[in-house]
Amino acid sequence: MRKRPGNGAARPAGDEIGLDALIGHAGYAVRRFQIWIFQDFIRTLAAVDIRPTQYSVMTVIGANPGLTQMAVAKRLGIERARLVHLLNSLERRKLVKRIKSKSDRRSHALHLTAQGEASLDQFKRLAAEHERHVEEKLGKQNRARLLQILADFT
Amino acid sequence: MRKRPGNGAARPAGDEIGLDALIGHAGYAVRRFQIWIFQDFIRTLAAVDIRPTQYSVMTVIGANPGLTQMAVAKRLGIERARLVHLLNSLERRKLVKRIKSKSDRRSHALHLTAQGEASLDQFKRLAAEHERHVEEKLGKQNRARLLQILADFT
DNA sequence: AAAGAATGTTGTTGACGACAACAATTGTCG
DNA sequence: CGACAATTGTTGTCGTCAACAACATTCTTT
What we know:
Chain A is mostly helical. Chain A is built from six helices and two strands; from the N terminus they run H-H-H-H-E-E-H-H. Chain A has one domain: Arc Repressor Mutant, subunit A. Chain A binds a DNA duplex through helix 4.
């Protein structure tokens, strides 16, 4: 017989709550960490209203001008259907432009506008600040190890 | 002057696409990894139709019977509003039951049903299989390091 | 006893992944 | 060459998820 209140009394949170099998699951730790890191990114770049996915799209386009939407979507692992909306938003803000391709009239060549390039520089500075928060949270060496461990997924 | 096709020719994906600043961002790597690991979890537990969040809720309740909904939500970092729907679903499946608390008539004491406990054992075996997939993907030592690095977020 | 806080519930919003269908265009292959 | 399949961008739906706001019921505080 276990000593336990007879199912009627709820336990608010006075004593510690064990996670049991969850502590051995990488996915659980990764999810919690991912929530934290995205919140910090969004907060750090709130002044420029840029979210992680938008930042990743602009960075890839900036480094590889002329890419197709399919190419960007594949490279970043996002749905091409979703990229359409992301680009619509970025294009409305004059940060990105779609140029109709001559060689393949189905596709668009993606480029940053002049304003987009200037803005991206600022975004990168803010993102670097966010990354310093990560370093403070994890420790310099742990962050480096983490990047190394997950390098295959990029 | 940069040598570059005159903005009209799109680049499908022939050559490699550089990630530029993204490779130095832990958040990007974590996001890609999280997508992979959740997909594997869902696939591995597809036969029992259990998703990561449902598994985490049942595991915590199983290890700490009588917890309040607020206590579970806080411990797992999920919205209490969201936990309501999760518990509705689990209760419909006769895996979890809400018992009205005598001491605090606002709250519910959460317990696994007998079927819930038996099912959770099976879920844990499948989750362990999923964790072996993670180990194969990352390497035994890298997975251990990852868990250690992110231990503070659990 | 009155004011305030906590708990569970309902609802809305927006980001996100997954999927299906479609038109326009290109590639393939008989 | 011409029929058929594949690709690209687009639109739409569905379900998951985090974040917030509002509410009734029930403690807690003062």
